[in-house]
Amino acid sequence: MAAEARVSRWYFGGLASCGAACCTHPLDLLKVHLQTQQEVKLRMTGMALQVVRANGVLALYNGLSASLCRQMTYSLTRFAIYETVRDHLAGGSSGALPFYKKVLLGALGGFTGGFVGTPADMINVRMQNDMKLPPSQRRNYAHALDGLYRVVREEGLKKLFSGASMASSRGALVTVGQLSCYDQAKQLVLSTGRLSDNIFTHFLASFIAGGCAVFLCQPLDVLKTRLMDAQGEYRGVLHCAAQTAKLGPLAFYKGLFPAGLRLVPHTVLTFVFLEQLRKHFGLRVSS
Predict the structure, then answer these.
(1) Which tens digit of pLDDT belongs to each residue from 260-273?
(2) Which of 17, 91, 130, 281 has its CA at a distance of 20 to 30 angstroms from the CA of residue 48?
(3) What is the mean predicted confidence (pLDDT) over 27-46?
(4) pLDDT score of 1
């Protein structure tokens, strides 16, 4: 009798990413605060203490609704494209495709997901950064849907896709780092014969993938955050990059530690949740 295997349903990536976002949202908020500093004044611990002292512990979860909305647009799209096409081409076996095809597929899925998720991503950045602004300049969005509605009403539909090119490029890089590298790392770990397809293997492969994703996407992530939080001071991506470069080359890696501290655990949790969803609720296939 053929062995039974399971593959993900198209929406599992979005659900797994939402679960991970609930755990790592405070780190994402601190990353945004650090990246939008015009000068390096506070490090991660100092920023966390400042947020808690000024606004309370729950302020670390400001913008959670926008973060979940982002995962259900950006992450759901990129996972759906990557895993659906990969399983179709490889017959359900993630190891059947050569790595360069996984990279191309990850870039395609990530670029598309980045574009689809841009509106929610912008609202996420604004809601997280709102507490830093003077009271008269705060946007005070009640939740993600309120933010989307108000941007369309007050700034026009086009504004929702401000920074879309940057978000799409970043999405392509982070998806290559996460999904493509996860599949490849998992394949290499399993090929040693020392580990089986269990939660430790998932943790190890996702940890490697998270590190790759941080290295690839941090410069673009800094520029994307600055563009989305801008109030007219940048004329475009190149101008934003030029202004950031004036602060020195390391400005493109501002918030690298909290970005890694957020993205690596987020990657690990996403794939651990995804593998459990696949194991218990995935579509049955014969292999």
Answers:
(1) 888 899 999 999 99
(2) 17
(3) 75
(4) 39
pTM, full prediction: 0.82
At a CB cut-off of 8 Å and minimum separation 6, what does 207 contact? 264, 267, 268
Q: The dihedral of CA 237, 174, 117, 37: what is its sign?
A: negative
> Pick the residue with more confidence: 259 or 80?
80
d(CA 215, CA 234): 25
Separation between Cα atoms, residue 281 and residue 7, nearest integer Å: 9
162 DSSP assignment: T
57 burial type by CB count under 10 A (0-12 exposed, 13-18 middle, 19+ buried): exposed
**What number of other Cβ atoms are within 10 A of residue 89's Cβ?**
12
> Cα 146 to the chain's mean position, in Å?
22
Residue 162: both structure tokens together = 């401000």
CA distance 223 to 271: 27
Residue 224 tokens read as: 């994307």
Q: Mark 251-265 as b/e (b = at least 16 C-beta within 10 Å).
A: bbebbbebbbbbbbb
pLDDT(4) > 70: no
Domains, the chain, in order of start with CATH, read 4-286 (1.50.40.10)
